[in-house]
Amino acid sequence: MEENRLKASSSPHIRSDESVNKIMLDVLIALLPAFIASIFYFGVKSLILVVASVLSAVITEALCQKIMKRPITIGDLSAIVTGVLLAFNLPSTTPVWMPVIGSAFAIAIGKQVFGGLGQNFINPALAGRAVLFACWPALMGNYVAPLGIDAVATATPLAILKGTADAGLQMPGLLEMFIGRIPGCIGETSAVLLIIGGIYLIVRKVISWRIPVAYIGTVAVIALISEGNLTGMSYYLFAGGLMLGAFFMATDYATSPVTPKGKIIYGIGAGVLTMLIRKLGGYPEGVSYSILLMNVATPLIDKYTSPKIFGGAK
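RESULT FIELD:
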């Protein structure tokens, strides 16, 4: 009788209903409010950039897998998420050919070269953005005001804070920054909608709270100390791509630590690097490069934060 209850099977022994498809669908649902806001603030050009980026990502993934004789997995939605995130990191003035090139690089070099989903060591969307910024910095920094108020190029709040913008430009109000009515990349301006999307992912247990809380908390503490008041701190929290990066890109499964303690260290490291770049670097924003640098440090963090194996050899 007892023998009938015992079934020998190969690992993994813990099963879950979760799948890549379900996780990516949840990420897309979480990004939907910010996507709608980007169209409201920056017009149909936002929709065109996202569509171009997604199509490029999906087609590149299918071509790479066909050439490398791997199963075609575009149905898992991961390439769509990469395409959306890359487009979210572009200003609305970006020419349509740029997200096509950026997404193709993100998928081919940032993901498929290393073996595909789960094998990449840096976030593909951020890798694509870094290449676009290195090749065409003027086009990547060409921001305009939202709602079609002014088609003339203007500066982001972070550039005004850093003092690299034209003299005379005024900082927007905190409410405008919170809801996203500010110049910036199309998917990063609305802090409130990104926070709502991030909370949705945490509640759905798609991501852990540790990385975004440690990341945003570290930026908040450093900004509060350096600025000396809550208003100055809030500008550093709501401006730039902090919310988008903390909730949607720093939490990438393949490129972030797996241990709870490692996630906290990773988030703190990203926060420190972001503020160092914003305060001391030559670039007013620091989220993308901070996450990429911490991606590289992830194996080291995992090594020194992994639980000890009792009974194993030293």
